[in-house]
Amino acid sequence: MTIPYGEGANADVFKYSLFLVFCNRAVAATIAAITLVVKGRTDELRPVAPILSYASVSLSNVVATTCQYEALKHVTFAVQTLGKCAKMFPVMIWGYFILKKRYTMRDVALAVCITGGCFIFFMTGNTISRVAQDKNSSMFGVLLMMGYLSADGYTSTFQQKMFKGYQMTSYNQVLYVSLCSLALSSFGLVTSGQLSSTLAFISRHPDALSAMILLSCASSCGSLFISYTIKSFGALVFAIIMTTRQFLSILLSSLFFGSPLTGGQWAGTGVVVAALYYQSATKDSHAKDNAKEALPKNAAGRVSLSGVGTANSGSGDRARDEEVAAAQPLLAGQQR
């Protein structure tokens, strides 16, 4: 969406975000359905949760993805990518209201450091996209990223709630969320007039279709990993993993696409990465401390996993057990 297809007078930039969402979800639904059939889990082709629950995740996911793609029209890829790192705050807020989680001052401090690093990055270098029509549109791009963060934080938190409330596998959730997203994006394509414009663009630049298919395959595989990660380790841990990926994306963009960063931007990136590595290095000890504090409260015979390890929703042993179990569902009784 930033590099034109064609040359000279025929050069054209693809700008139809909803069609990318449509392609991504179509491939994701196909991969999830094929996987269930190959694994012999045809009973999971039926919805496990109410359709409205899938649709809720789907709607927020479509909004988040569309805001993410649209932001590239106004801010640089590096700004858009590092901005995703600030999703820890939205995840914590949604987790407080939806999952009734409580977070420690350590979690808040980490989120502040990461958000502060993003702010330093934004303030110390170029932030305007190369295809921006208005040189002052970077603030609109930031607003789009705020919309992305809010919607994406809700998506991952509600996904975690669905895993805890229903006997559901990652494949089942990806299948029905993707099908709902297909319906939403199709409606948006038709009503906004983007469908005809997209087809005209592909007819002029057929090579763009192969790039869309490749992007959709990568995104679909990522959706399966995302869903499994949220189920096994929680929404906040998923946010931290994704943040590490953002740094690698910025580095590769700087090296391969000629987008050099200023010293201040590298400093902001360093703050974010340092906070993440600190969190990773102290994760196990922090979870054990929380577990020890919770044990006396459970002496009466009640075991409450929701109060143990707020930022890390499972112990190391449980995480290893769930890796062995792959995509097997977590029963609500096991959670309690």
Q: Top keywords for this entry?
A:
mainly alpha
CA(first)-CA(last) distance: 46 Å
Uncertain regions spanning at least 5 consecutive residues: 297-336
Count the beta strands: 0
Instruction: Provide the β-strand percentage band.
Output: under 5%
Helix content: over 70%
Query: What is the 3D form?
Result: globular
Radius of gyration: 21 Å
Reported for the largest beta sheet, the result is: none
Average pLDDT, all residues: 78
Q: What class do helices, strands and sheet pairing give?
A: mainly alpha
SS summary, helix count: 14
Give the H and E element order: HHHHHHHHHHHHHH
Secondary-structure map:
Elements: H1 17-38, H2 51-71, H3 77-83, H4 88-98, H5 105-123, H6 138-165, H7 170-192, H8 194-204, H9 207-233, H10 235-256, H11 263-281, H12 283-294, H13 316-325, H14 332-335
Detailed description of the structure:
Helix 3 runs antiparallel to helix 10, helix 7 packs across helix 9 and helix 9 runs antiparallel to helix 10. The chain is mainly α and 336 residues long. It is globular.
What is this entry, summarized?
The protein contains 14 helices and no strands.
